[in-house]
Design a protein that fits this description.
This protein is α/β, with parallel strands linked by helices and 163 residues long. Helices cover 44% and strands 21% of the residues.
């Protein structure tokens, strides 16, 4: 599935449910938000996003616990979950999305190129997926966006709308 198709599916599902969305992005650098806002009608559901590329901003802006970042580094499933929860909470949204990982060309903090975590947080909890992607920076970033939007669509299917 391509990014725009994944974005349209997620946005349309949110519009139907009358729920909102926010994002916190690291390796995708705003590409999740840019992809979402291409969809007509998105203003009804998209609250905003945080681009927290620098590790200290993950704590300062998105509320990721500093001890978690110090212990595991920014490329971690629990960090992705905390980013999604932080986006949701700090932007006042029903759902939060997050991406963190290594797009390359070099490994980062002992983590291989292509290791990515995407997470979605909602009122019923959070879900995270570990991805092991191949390709260049552009391919890894694009696949990360598609993956987090697909994860959101999956979570929307599995979770009833807020009463």
């Amino acid at each position: 599935m391509e990014m725009s198709v994944a974005a349209a599916a997620a946005v349309h599902a949110l519009v139907e449910r009358r729920e909102t969305l926010a994002s916190a992005e690291s390796l995708t650098g705003g590409l999740v938000a840019a992809t979402i806002v291409e969809i007509p009608g998105v203003s009804a559901v998209f609250r905003g996003g945080l681009v927290v590329y620098a590790t200290e901003l993950k704590a300062r802006l998105a509320g990721v616990p500093e001890d978690l970042l110090a212990e595991r580094g920014p490329v971690d499933g629990d960090v992705a979950t905390a980013l999604a929860e932080g986006a949701r909470e700090r932007c006042g949204a029903d759902w939060g999305l997050a991406t963190t990982g290594v797009a390359g060309p070099e490994p980062q903090d002992g983590k291989p190129v292509g290791l990515v975590y995407v997470a979605v947080a909602g009122h019923a909890g959070a879900t995270v997926r570990e991805l092991k992607l191949d390709g260049n920076r552009e391919a890894i970033r694009t696949e990360s966006v598609t993956a987090v939007l697909q994860l959101l669509t999956d979570c929307l299917r599995e979770t009833s709308a807020r009463p």
